[in-house]
TrEMBL record:
InterPro entries: DUF3850, PUA-like_sf. This is ASCH/PUA domain-containing protein. It comes from Priestia flexa. SUPFAM superfamilies: PUA domain-like. Transmembrane segments: none annotated.
Length: 78
């Protein structure tokens, strides 16, 4: 069964996903991410870390840990 993972995202990264320029996320795999899961990216203000109110849902289509720091993964998202 697929899961939804709510993740905080700084404006520069959130906007890149929003416009389609960034089609991946690199994250610590502390949530047992799986292909088919949904990432709910919630934009936060850089200074205060409070939510801006904007969010996006993206599906994980591929995961790799190749050449990443220990316990980090790269996830392709659409």
């Amino acid at each position: 069964m697929s899961k939804k993972h709510e993740l905080k995202s700084l404006p520069e990264y959130f906007n890149a996903v929003y416009i389609g320029a960034k089609t991946f996320e690199i994250r610590k795999n502390d949530r047992d991410f799986k292909v088919g899961d949904t990432l709910v990216l919630k934009e936060i203000f850089s200074a205060s870390k409070n939510f801006t109110g904007r969010s996006l849902e993206k599906k994980i289509t591929y995961i790799t840990d190749y050449e990443q720091k220990e316990n980090y993964v790269v996830m392709a998202i659409i």
